[in-house]
């Protein structure tokens, strides 16, 4: 249902607002010609539908998101209308089939993510939680009733989600979580959830919170859909975490549960243990691998423009100096390699052939290279790097967070090391 809308809206939005990367695809008349915006011609690996979806997403993000991000970042404000707008375009839960979702390929979904993060990682964060972590979890593990109840409204951005795994004392090691689900002492057919989650994207505004807790009967981790509107006063609090020095255009908070009654029907029926949250994370980590390359590409484009305009020593543009050119060459190479790797893993994911370690590899690599290169490119702006008007400092601060959440980079190194050697690192 949404496929035509995705294409149609691409045409409706003006070409002038399309980012240079997309214009570059159309300008490809001679394949041999080098295009700094797509150096390895990754566009040639995409289907027509994926290109159309990418155009729709890029046009929306550049026209509607970009103009509000600077003020939102300064004010530490997240405009939740963004998710409704994305819902209207069919960009939420885009890989899910049915339930008013677009049912597109993983590569198409990656391209959407890249377009959003080209503007800001915080906006991508809000979308990732909605699409991959909560809608993805319900689609994969929910009952038919849960899917029918939540997915269509979430696809429209009318119902907002949050994903509660991390706890104050257990971040990299969620298997040791302390949040529990026990039979409710007075309400028949209900469980009582108690515990605290922290650093939770969207939690202060979420309508439905997917909380992972240890189930009394087995001591194993299970997933629970906590509906804010159904929680009696004092049983659910979601205070925001303010004064962040990164990801300021995204809302982050805690989830505090104090004997919160949750219907047993809101528990995921079958999945037990960390396989539940990590399956959701596989999709979200895959999205971050794409998104961070979008942020890096924006840093490259901004730096190139600045270096061509800024003149030092006998009126030369600083882009003429080889040290500046090397910074751009390094960053552009990493962005191009990162895109190709993400496409390959996306194609394997579509066929059900992507191992979680492949996703760890591209999440770690693309986050690390985006952070490293953006920090280096920031130097090209000299003193102006310190002004938020130039945008690059915002990406650098955001990219530190992307390297930290959904498994900090060193944790993904250990996941890879374990897979390479066969030796358990987390004991
Ligand atoms: P381990 O023994 O490795 O595994 C336990 C069980 O889980 C299964 N599993 C997976 N299943 C599917 N996909 C994966 N990627 C999986 N990884 C593990 C595994 O097969 C096993 O299943 P079973 O059936 O045998 O029980 O568990 P461990 O405790 O040794 O895990 C260690 C480690 C490091 C791998 C893990 O804890 C880890 O990845 N830590 C990082 C934590 C993390 O990523 N947190 C993310 C929080 S959510 C978030 O950050 C959202 S930010 C959103 C935004 O704003 O964008
Ligand atoms: P720790 O686990 O304390 O790690 C600290 C350092 O120690 C890291 O460098 C880590 O690599 C290192 N370390 C830990 N163990 C080992 C080891 N065995 N070997 C070597 N090094 C090790 N979580 C959610 O559940 N939902 C969300 O929506 C969400 N959104 C977030 C939004 C933001 C803005 C941020 C900052 C975080 C968010 N998180 C969320 C939490 C995030 O996933 C965690 O911060 C992350 O998993 C790291 O956990 P931690 O902060 O407890 O760090």
From TrEMBL:
GO cellular component, one term: mitochondrial inner membrane
Class of enzymatic activity (EC top level): oxidoreductase
Ranges of residues in domain Acyl-CoA dehydrogenase/oxidase C-terminal: 273-420
Subcellular locations according to the entry: Mitochondrion matrix
Domain of life, source organism: Eukaryota
Record has Transmembrane helix as a keyword: no
Domain Acyl-CoA oxidase/dehydrogenase middle: 162-260
Keywords of this entry: FAD, Flavoprotein, Mitochondrion, Oxidoreductase, Transit peptide
InterPro entries: Acyl-CoA_Oxase/DH_mid-dom, Acyl-CoA_Oxase/DH_mid-dom_sf, AcylCo_DH-like_C, AcylCo_DH/oxidase_C, AcylCoA_DH/ox_N, AcylCoA_DH/ox_N_sf, AcylCoA_DH/oxidase_NM_dom_sf, Glutaryl-CoA_DH_mitochondrial
Acyl-CoA dehydrogenase/oxidase N-terminal domain segment(s): 47-158
Recorded metabolic or biological pathway in which this protein acts: Amino-acid metabolism; tryptophan metabolism; Amino-acid metabolism; lysine degradation
Enzyme Commission number(s) of this protein: 1.3.8.6
GO biological processes: fatty acid beta-oxidation using acyl-CoA dehydrogenase; fatty-acyl-CoA biosynthetic process
SUPFAM superfamilies: Acyl-CoA dehydrogenase C-terminal domain-like (SSF47203), Acyl-CoA dehydrogenase NM domain-like (SSF56645)
Classification via Pfam families: Acyl-CoA_dh_1, Acyl-CoA_dh_M, Acyl-CoA_dh_N
Keyword Magnesium: no
Molecular function (Gene Ontology), one example: glutaryl-CoA dehydrogenase activity
Cofactor: FAD
Catalytic activity: glutaryl-CoA + oxidized [electron-transfer flavoprotein] + 2 H(+) = (2E)-butenoyl-CoA + reduced [electron-transfer flavoprotein] + CO2
Family as reported in the entry's similarity comment: Belongs to the acyl-CoA dehydrogenase family.
Protein name: glutaryl-CoA dehydrogenase (ETF)
